[in-house]
Amino acid sequence: MRISLIAFLALFLLNSCSQSGGSRKTPNGLEVKVLKEGSGSYAAPGQFVVLSMVYKDSKDSVWADTRKREFPVIVPVGDTSLIKMEKGVESVFRVIKKNDSIQVQVDAKSLFDNTFRQPLPPNVKPDEKITFLISCSNVLNQNQADSMMMEAQRQRQESMMKNAEKQLALDTVAIDAYLATKKIVAIKDPSGLRYVITKKGSGAGPSVESTVKVNYKGMLMTNGEIFDQSSSPIEYPLSNLIRGWQIGFPLLSRGAKATLYIPSSLGYGAAGSPPVIPPDSNLIFEVELVDFK
Q1: What's the pLDDT score for residue 9?
Q2: What is the pTM of this model?
Q3: What is residue 21's predicted lDDT score, i.e. its pLDDT?
Q4: CA distances (Å), 114 to each of 11, 118, 291, in order?
């Protein structure tokens, strides 16, 4: 029993040592604390490390947390010829293994000078300690990284489409409620666009490939605030404009005037157009199709 207990304790201590503790040094001299020891060799030049990363200041205020993103961060390990130019945190990726969890601290000035390559914000002290907590879930070769990034892109596009569909449903309900409240009778396009022709034109309408000459005034549906308007007719390639215009203008004839009620997903979407158009904003455009070619 005594021998078994001693063997157990030895195994426990050995395992504990392999799981955490110790430190490493990057080629540029940064001290790396090992929180959990991974397996295998360090990621080699030409390989890619799959990471999650949190970095925060000395007050524990989190500056960024990649774990909140939908997809992991994939970082290439550069050729050895680049080592001398790596003055910042990127040098850490040369001393990281699969399943590692590590910690590294840098001064704010060094971080902004060497990694972000931008001026230090006036509210940040140069000697402020910034702590990075980095976990590496995998080390990939070029083909594996390409496959992972393609899959991530596919999932991102699929997620964006689903979100856009959900948002469009919300938008059309909001637009129809607005129209009902204002007692406006609008034509409903299957796309979700609603429109009222206030002056009929003549002849055929433009196509998406046309260049349109227009007068317009753009407003936020929520409060009627004008965010943009033309002072004289302006020409645009219709294919370069928001989907709401690409759908709306072909419904008009030369000389026609209309009011377009555009769902956010056919406008500027979840990103909006800061600072004048907030995210997921339904828009109203009063437009005149002066001419097209």
Answers
A1: 38
A2: 0.58
A3: 64
A4: 43, 8, 53
In the three-class reduction of DSSP (H, G, I as helix; E, B as strand; rest coil), residue 181 is classed as helix
Expressed in angstroms, the distance from the first to the final Cα of the chain is 93
Full domain range(s) for residue 57:
20-143
Listing DSSP states for 48-109 in one string gives: EEEEEEEEE-TT--EEEEGGGSSS-EEEEPPPGGGGGG--SGGGGGGG--BT-EEEEEEEHH
Token pair 């195994």 in the structure block, residue: 11
Q: What is the CATH number of the domain that holds 96?
A: 3.10.50.40
Phi, psi of 164 (to 5 degrees): -65, -40
List pLDDT tens digits, range 41-76. Answer: 999 999 999 999 999 999 999 999 999 887 889 999
Three-state SS for 240-257 is HCCHHHHHHHHHCCECCE
User: How far is 19 from 111, CA to CA, in rounded Å?
Assistant: 29
Same structural domain, 194 and 283: yes
The reported pLDDT for the residue numbered 70 is 78
Residue 278 maps to a domain: yes
